[in-house]
Design brief:
0% strand, 2 helices, single chain
Length: 147
């Protein structure tokens, strides 16, 4: 019979340990390889889908830029029309405003002169002017109510 020495038992234990270690490493490497394959497939799919999306986004940005250019042109045209309308309004006001006020004042004076008062009628009370947003002081308000 053959007896096994302590060195041989230690050698067998080391060999079994290395076999188990190599097995775990092989399983880990197999799983790592599987993960890398899945990652590679995922990156390829994302790339396949991202390229058309980027093309669509680029097209949308170009279209938006075109629309912004159109709106800018419209805004500048509106600004020019507004400026022209303001100038026209100022011209009309300065051309017709002064003479119209003078004609109205003249007409009022003529009416007043021709419409004169009759002697048997008492003079009318002067008209009161109403100012929007202004209140009458309380002392004047009570006088008015008594009248």
């Amino acid at each position: 019979m053959h007896t096994v020495s302590g060195g041989e038992v230690a050698g067998i234990l080391v060999a079994v340990f290395w076999a188990i270690l190599v097995s775990f490493l092989a399983v880990a490497l197999a799983r790592l390889a599987q993960t890398l394959r899945a990652t590679t497939k995922l990156v390829a799919d994302v790339t396949d889908q991202a390229v058309p999306l980027l093309a669509d986004a680029s097209s949308a940005v170009r279209s938006a830029q075109t629309q912004i250019d159109r709106v800018d042109a419209i805004a500048s045209d509106v600004q020019e029309v507004t400026s022209n309308a303001s100038a026209l309004s100022t011209t009309v006001a300065s051309t017709f405003g002064g003479p119209l006020v003078k004609v109205a004042a003249f007409g009022y004076g003529v009416r007043r002169a021709l419409g004169g008062r009759k002697e048997d009628q008492p003079a009318k009370e002067p008209r009161r002017t109403v100012i929007v947003g202004r209140t009458i002081p309380s002392a004047r308000r009570t006088k008015r109510k008594k009248d």
